[in-house]
């Protein structure tokens, strides 16, 4: 699925509540990535649009559904939120610094996993994958916590957004 993924077709009575219906990644400054990484990006985008819980919190918050644009700018993760009519709601900006260590560890274990699936036994692959999923969940929880002041997310939505953060963070 392309990075400017469109929402699934909905009837007027099926309009999603508490959700993202369109997501775009600012990937203009990035070169090609490994096919495995491109696959992870596509799966995260697809799964995010299929099912997510994403709702602005606080008094006077604009109700969903939302269009979301994600970008990395000056070591910050920028969420640009708009309505389905592309009316700007707000920008949410998070420092990427607190995520650096977990992203670095996650990239290292992903490299090990991608190499392992080519040559190692299923038992060793499973052990590496358990570590990879654990780091992924840790990063998702950190993202969920950092966004909690602005947005209510479920765990699966946070995991998919963490995947997209990692994809945007990738420089090669």
Q: How does this structure look, described?
A:
The chain has one domain (12-169). 45% of the residues lie in helices and 20% in strands. The chain contains four helices and six strands. Helix 1 (35-50) runs antiparallel to helix 4 (155-169), helix 2 runs antiparallel to helix 3 (122-147) and helix 3 (122-147) crosses helix 4 (155-169). The longest helix is centred in the last third of the chain and has 26 residues, at 122-147. Residues 1-13 have low confidence and may be disordered.
Topology:
Blueprint: E1 20-25, H1 35-50, E2 54-56, E3 66-73, E4 76-82, E5 88-95, H2 100-119, H3 122-147, E6 151-153, H4 155-169
Parallel strand pairs: 1-3
Antiparallel strand pairs: 2-6, 3-4, 4-5
Helix pairs in contact: 1-4, 2-3, 3-4
């Amino acid at each position: 699925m392309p990075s400017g993924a469109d929402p699934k077709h909905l009837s007027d009575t099926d309009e999603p509540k508490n959700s993202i219906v369109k997501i775009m990644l600012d990937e203009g400054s990035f070169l090609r990535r490994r096919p495995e990484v491109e696959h992870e990006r596509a799966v995260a985008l697809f799964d995010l649009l299929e099912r997510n819980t994403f709702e602005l919190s606080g008094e006077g918050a604009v109700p969903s559904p939302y269009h979301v644009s994600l970008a990395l700018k000056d070591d910050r993760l920028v969420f640009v939120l708009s309505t389905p009519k592309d009316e700007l709601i707000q920008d949410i900006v998070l420092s990427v610094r607190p995520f650096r260590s977990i992203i670095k560890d996650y990239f290292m274990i992903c490299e090990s996993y991608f190499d392992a699936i080519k040559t190692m036994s299923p038992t060793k692959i499973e052990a590496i994958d358990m570590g990879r999923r654990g780091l992924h969940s840790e990063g998702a929880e950190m993202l969920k916590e950092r966004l909690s002041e602005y947005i209510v997310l479920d765990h699966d939505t946070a995991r998919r957004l963490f995947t997209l953060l990692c994809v945007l963070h990738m420089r090669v």
